Amino acid sequence: MKKNLNLLLFCFIIFGLSFFVRLYKIYNPVADWHSWRQADTAAVARNFAKNGINFLYPQSDSLEALNLWQLPNPKRLFINEFPFYNAIVALLYRQFGIHEYLARLVSVGFSSLGAVFLFLLVNRLFNFKIALVAGFFYCLNPYNIYYGRVIMPDPTNVSLSIISLYLFIKWLDTQKFYLGFLFSLAFGLALLVKPYAIFVAAPMIYWAFATKGWKIFAWKSAYLFGLIAVVPYLLWRQHYLAHPEANFDTTWLFNRTNIRFTGAFFRWLIFERFNRLIFATGGFVLLIIGLLTSYLNKNRLFVFIWFLSIIGYMVIFAMGNVTHDYYQLPIMPVGSILVSFGFWQIIESSKKIIIKLINLGFAVSLLVISFGFGWYEVRGFFNINHPEIIAAGKAVDELTPKDALVIAAYNNDPAFLYQTNRYGWPIGTDIEDRVKLGATHYVSINHDNVTEYLSSKCSVVVDKPEYIIIDLRNCAL
To answer: CA triplet 95, 97, 102: central angle to 5 degrees?
Structure first.
């Protein structure tokens, strides 16, 4: 009983710590690092709040065709990942108003819940001390802190994947129906939110065979739970394919430019991302040491297979992982376990007390280096580098009709369009064609040849050093 109470206490501590550190700049507008991806997610949630939650037909703000075939998307459909995260945010928006910090808090909550379940998972497979270091590294890693409070579905997906693994192991331990059912729900949601959750199936399959052998195939419940987890994603995939105009072009994620297994591929993932950004030198040393001890017994082999599976994901989606640093977020849970392995391997490499103390200092120093160097790399992610898009967006919202269709010229980045609280286009080319499609206003933070030309032909709503808004109605273009 006392052991369970202590475990519960540390669950609360880990959740609270994780939640607290992710409140840093929680009130940031959607204009920080990777705001282009956050803007689409935030727009879907905002439109859910305004127009009602329709899981099958989520809508962004952009009328720009982003699909592979450049099919028109006049309804602004955004059918990519299942909008589970967006719907939760929309419910909060309806209750408390549309405030982006609420969307960030949902990510913070899921990320913190994931930290708790990682702690419980490692405690179940190994022991309390390994779980404690893994949990705290996961909580305090600067890269994970930033991406644990973004307006994106990725932190929700990673947390659901961790929860799935824990519930799967507990189900195999106890064979209780409710645990299997909860596992299937968590894993099914993880797949819907981001299909790359399928890569955590590899350690699940290993663990099922390692603990139950071929007998697992005699469990009727295993087939039921498998169907509950997979069928919703297959149905969503069918719906996705039925609406090609509403999909992102994702073909480039695999191996565009043939970067897979090139020197640039290894440099970007191993040196720039693992060593420099995510585990930040000190943690990378601990991870390598931990990796060398991760296949020594049945339980550790689970972690090794999990790690290899995530590496497989990075190899398959080679270009996506090289291009975007948030694509490596799935490495954080298993990477934190390996860091903990390395931490305790250093300390316990000698039985002499003095040597243990020296090793403890060395291991702690590596963690401090990791957090320090990691923060140095990540601190700029929180910055708002273009506050002028926020000021311009507010002006558009105040000075244009609510049904205005806006061209927010920002190199096809929807973050600027999102700030206007209007539908339209995030790119300032082919103005005449967009006017024919209904564009009523043009806004830009650059005074360039385009704005000079439009100013000479159209009515200028406002012209400030930071931005210019032009009325495209009744123009002689």
So the answer is: 85
Whether 434 is covered by a domain: the verdict is yes
In 3D, which of 66, 16, 64 has the Cα closest to residue 244?
A: 66
Phi, psi of 467 (to 5 degrees): -165, 165
Give the type of residue at 471: D
The single-letter code of the amino acid at 188 is G
Enter the tokens of residue 33: 């690092």
Q: Give the residue carrying structure tokens 């060398």.
A: 292
User: Residue 298 is which amino acid?
Assistant: K
Ranges in the chain, pLDDT < 70: 1
Output the 3-class SS for 65-96.
Answer: CCCCCCCCCCCCECCCCCCHHHHHHHHHHHHH
Bridge pairing between strands 468-471 and 405-408: unpaired
428, 442 in Cβ contact below 8 A?
A: yes
Both ends of the chain: CA-CA distance in Å?
77
Q: Give pLDDT, residue 5.
A: 84
pLDDT number for residue 334: 99
Domain range for 441: 388-471
Residue 210: Cβ within 10 Å count: 15
Containing 425, the helix (H) or strand (E) segment is strand 423-425
Indicate whether 439 belongs to any domain: yes
Q: CA torsion, points 199, 19, 99, 59, in degrees to nearest 10?
A: 10
User: Does residue 218 sit within a domain?
Assistant: no
In a domain, 69, yes or no: no
Domain count across the chain: 1
Give the Å distances, CA to CA, from 52 to 45, 48, 57.
Answer: 10, 5, 11
Instruction: Provide the CA 470 distance to its chain's centre, in angstroms.
Output: 36
Q: What are phi and psi of 404, to 5 degrees?
A: -65, 145
